């Protein structure tokens, strides 16, 4: 990737987006006009002066933008406008921009490119960047790309592709400056001056021996403040944070966050330096992790291009809806068990959703707490029982307080003390159930080796719905009828 | 803050936590024993050899840890163990550790310190770090602290405190290396060597004129690869990304993410350099933002210490529960309107939660999409109508598909075609309502200048619950009875 120095935007991103949209609209009016005047044929349209001027102005605007800003604009445009802009972008910038857009939008852009264009876009990318894109490129294009690479680069792409998406190996890059420990800082400074430029996020140089085994790191800060006569070995940090390529990338990201790192070496089992992790990749990972948490909680399978077709959106959303439908159906059957009771006392039908709803809300509060504690590794040191006790306490108190309030309201509305008491009791029991399951569900999912965040919200709601209906209607049947 | 070089942990964090917990438990057994043997008095206990050995080992373990790791362990311990560990931490590290823990845990630690200890912990902190802690420290301690500072430091703390938590000014630090543009790189290198150490995250030096106005930045990378004879002015970047102290900090974080920045200057209206933003603060902010989104979606007011008392948890959670109770009550009243219909056809009571539940789930999917698009500034360029149309399309299709499936199941269960058709129609209408409100609620909240994420999930559920009951029971009353 050719590194682009970010410049202070003269206008905010929204302003620049608005300008592009404005130009696109002007463009459409011109096309419309040309079409109505009967000069809608491609050649004639291109001859149209105003049309051409518009395109030139748009292209000029796009050229002044950082690839990440172009990516942002592409994300914010509906498909037809998005492709108009995409075609105006200079082909040598295509690769950098493809790296910046979301997966969903990248798919729409690649679908619009022919093999030749894809090859041109990919040819200036680094091995790790190629590996990032490879999964979404046509298979024969990837094959052709690999042939153009030298042996080292090809090996690097293969290596990056051999790791799972969530492993350190898939996120590392290979742009590193390595030095020897038995030279002076002066020599290092002279060596750096011979390089045309340093890789982005170079806050430390990696010290390796003749076999490529990592001996330590030389922070640039130390290089700058120490006497140039000193040897690297005297100044370097001997025991830096390192990662293995098969480690969990998210744990690496947490280490970056915890220790305020900018870059770290990645070494293999033998201690040989094979790559580097940088903070920019880690920030993206942190962002993605928390986004997927939000998406999963809302029952979306993955990130969705906001202008995705109705059909694509359906596919992204159907799984959770179907699951929800099944759990709602189960809850419905639970109610069906008490048909007779509801016929005798129709107020039960109106009150039962309150019991179920509060249980779901409270259960989700508990589960969010627990999932978060698990994500931060704060669980699993025998704290489970203590947390269960606390959550049960919260549930009990909430049940007595809010159940009591609702019980009074029910008495006031329906004039029946016993109905009020049943309501209070049902709410308290359902909140206790919510607390219990709010702790047990994520803990059990984790024990089974599954992601405790994924689907736990749907499960707790299923339990508190069916459970709430059963508890309330059951108590009412026992004590009121 | 004294900078601590992060070292590669020999064991994972969990292992180290487990070791501390193990030592704490051993400790407790000794205390128990001592108590049972009647030597439970403080002085006698301290004389107990085993007890003392344990404490020494624990202290040794803690000393070897990075402040962030000690913070992690404090977060993961129940209150009594947490305070035992906290008292063992050397007082000169207290300040650094306080900066690393979450607000909720920080409160418990500060509550355990007397004024003298707080003063000792805070005295080595930088101005921006002091400002971070100030809100949670006792007022008279802050006053006393301010008196110990020199005029410049005091001014900086005041300045940092004068900004809102979500403004750039509250997050900037003041540790910067500034240089002049009319010197050679050689001079800069010599100047740096005279400094004992460089501030963390120094990836660029700030070039200022004699009035302190920012002229550009000199990336360290350029300093290292360019000929030392060159002037700073030839090599520096003239047009760097800068921020004003009153800008939104989250937008700054997005710029860091987008442009892969490590540090940026903060300038006042006149272009004068007043501070610096660094990636570590931005990462924390990104993490906090997405966490508060998750917490709000789940109906938690703020981050909660997992070992918070039941009482504290109640306070953190009651507001959303109360709101939920009110919306559930409204839905209950809607059902109450159709008492007569349910009495005649009790199947309605069992089926109505399905309609409401699916509407809520689908509405939450839509709202999450829209809120996300708004957070990324992808809305507001006349896309609203287009999105509404798409979401309505998704809702319509989902209604016909899943409503059709449920309609068939209802026919099979209850043997009534008309009940099945009413079910399908109600589900379709409620999904359309969910799509409509899923777009309108966040857009309206944003127009009113409110955070569209906050509470929109509760609102959509309220609408789809009450709306779903009304639509289903209304259709049934019209067509079936």
UniProtKB/TrEMBL annotation, chains A, B:
<keyword id="KW-1133">Transmembrane helix</keyword>
<dbReference type="Pfam" id="PF03448">
    <property type="entry name" value="MgtE_N"/>
</dbReference>
<protein>
    <recommendedName>
        <fullName>Magnesium transporter MgtE</fullName>
    </recommendedName>
</protein>
<keyword id="KW-0812">Transmembrane</keyword>
<dbReference type="InterPro" id="IPR006667">
    <property type="entry name" value="SLC41_membr_dom"/>
</dbReference>
<dbReference type="GO" id="GO:0005886">
    <property type="term" value="C:plasma membrane"/>
</dbReference>
<dbReference type="InterPro" id="IPR006669">
    <property type="entry name" value="MgtE_transporter"/>
</dbReference>
<comment type="similarity">
    <text>Belongs to the SLC41A transporter family.</text>
</comment>
<keyword id="KW-0460">Magnesium</keyword>
<dbReference type="InterPro" id="IPR000644">
    <property type="entry name" value="CBS_dom"/>
</dbReference>
<dbReference type="Pfam" id="PF01769">
    <property type="entry name" value="MgtE"/>
</dbReference>
<feature type="domain" description="CBS">
    <location>
        <begin position="236"/>
        <end position="292"/>
    </location>
</feature>
<feature type="transmembrane region" description="Helical">
    <location>
        <begin position="350"/>
        <end position="371"/>
    </location>
</feature>
<dbReference type="GO" id="GO:0046872">
    <property type="term" value="F:metal ion binding"/>
</dbReference>
<feature type="transmembrane region" description="Helical">
    <location>
        <begin position="392"/>
        <end position="414"/>
    </location>
</feature>
<keyword id="KW-1003">Cell membrane</keyword>
<dbReference type="InterPro" id="IPR038076">
    <property type="entry name" value="MgtE_N_sf"/>
</dbReference>
<keyword id="KW-0813">Transport</keyword>
<dbReference type="InterPro" id="IPR006668">
    <property type="entry name" value="Mg_transptr_MgtE_intracell_dom"/>
</dbReference>
<keyword id="KW-0129">CBS domain</keyword>
<feature type="transmembrane region" description="Helical">
    <location>
        <begin position="318"/>
        <end position="338"/>
    </location>
</feature>
<feature type="transmembrane region" description="Helical">
    <location>
        <begin position="420"/>
        <end position="446"/>
    </location>
</feature>
<feature type="transmembrane region" description="Helical">
    <location>
        <begin position="458"/>
        <end position="480"/>
    </location>
</feature>
<dbReference type="Pfam" id="PF00571">
    <property type="entry name" value="CBS"/>
</dbReference>
<dbReference type="GO" id="GO:0015095">
    <property type="term" value="F:magnesium ion transmembrane transporter activity"/>
</dbReference>
<keyword id="KW-0472">Membrane</keyword>
<comment type="subunit">
    <text>Homodimer.</text>
</comment>
<dbReference type="InterPro" id="IPR036739">
    <property type="entry name" value="SLC41_membr_dom_sf"/>
</dbReference>
<comment type="function">
    <text>Acts as a magnesium transporter.</text>
</comment>
<feature type="domain" description="CBS">
    <location>
        <begin position="172"/>
        <end position="234"/>
    </location>
</feature>
<dbReference type="InterPro" id="IPR046342">
    <property type="entry name" value="CBS_dom_sf"/>
</dbReference>
<keyword id="KW-0479">Metal-binding</keyword>
């Amino acid at each position: 990737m050719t590194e682009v120095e970010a410049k202070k935007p003269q206008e905010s991103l929204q302003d620049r987006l608005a300008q592009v949209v404005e130009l696109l609209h002007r463009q459409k009016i011109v096309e419309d006009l040309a079409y109505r005047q009967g000069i809608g044929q491609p050649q004639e349209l291109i001859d149209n002066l105003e049309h051409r001027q518009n395109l030139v102005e748009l292209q000029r605007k796009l050229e002044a933008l950082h690839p990440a800003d172009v990516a942002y604009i592409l994300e914010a445009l509906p498909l037809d406008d998005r492709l108009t802009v995409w075609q105006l972008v200079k082909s040598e910038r295509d690769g950098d921009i493809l790296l910046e857009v979301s997966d969903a939008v990248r798919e729409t852009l690649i679908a619009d490119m022919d093999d030749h264009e894809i090859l041109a876009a990919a040819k200036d990318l680094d091995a790790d960047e190629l590996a990032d894109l490879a999964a979404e490129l046509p298979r024969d294009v990837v094959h052709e790309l690999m042939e153009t690479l030298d042996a080292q680069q090809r090996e690097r792409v293969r290596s990056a592709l051999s790791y799972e998406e969530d492993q350190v190996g898939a996120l590392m890059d290979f742009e590193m400056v390595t030095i020897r420990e038995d030279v002076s800082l002066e020599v290092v400074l002279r060596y750096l001056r011979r390089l045309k430029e340093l890789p982005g996020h170079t806050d430390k140089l990696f010290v390796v021996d003749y076999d490529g085994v990592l001996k330590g790191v030389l922070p640039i800060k130390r290089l700058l403040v120490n006497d140039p006569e000193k040897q690297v070995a005297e100044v370097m940090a001997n025991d830096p944070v390192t990662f293995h390529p098969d480690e969990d990338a998210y744990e690496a990201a947490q280490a970056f966050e915890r220790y305020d790192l900018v870059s770290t070496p990645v070494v293999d089992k033998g201690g040989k330096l094979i790559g580097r992790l940088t903070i920019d990749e880690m920030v993206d990972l942190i962002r993605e992790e928390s986004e997927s948490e939000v998406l999963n909680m809302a029952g979306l399978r993955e990130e969705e291009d906001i202008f995705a077709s109705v059909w694509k959106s359906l596919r992204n959303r159907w799984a959770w809806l179907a699951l929800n439908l099944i759990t709602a159906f189960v809850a419905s059957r639970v109610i069906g068990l008490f048909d007779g009771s509801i016929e005798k006392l129709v107020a039960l039908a109106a009150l039962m959703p309150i019991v179920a709803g509060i249980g779901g809300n409270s259960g989700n509060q508990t589960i969010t707490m627990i999932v978060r504690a698990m994500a931060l590794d704060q669980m699993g040191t025998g704290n489970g029982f203590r947390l269960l006790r606390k959550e049960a306490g919260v549930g009990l108190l909430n049940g007595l307080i809010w159940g009591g309030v609702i019980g009074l309201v029910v008495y006031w509305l329906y004039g029946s003390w016993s109905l009020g008491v049943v309501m209070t009791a049902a709410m308290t029991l359902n909140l206790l159930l919510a607390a219990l399951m709010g702790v047990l569900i994520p803990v059990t999912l984790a024990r089974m080796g599954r992601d405790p965040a994924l689907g736990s919200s749907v499960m707790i709601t299923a339990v508190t719905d069916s459970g709430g209906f059963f508890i309330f209607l059951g108590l009412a049947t026992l004590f009121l009828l």
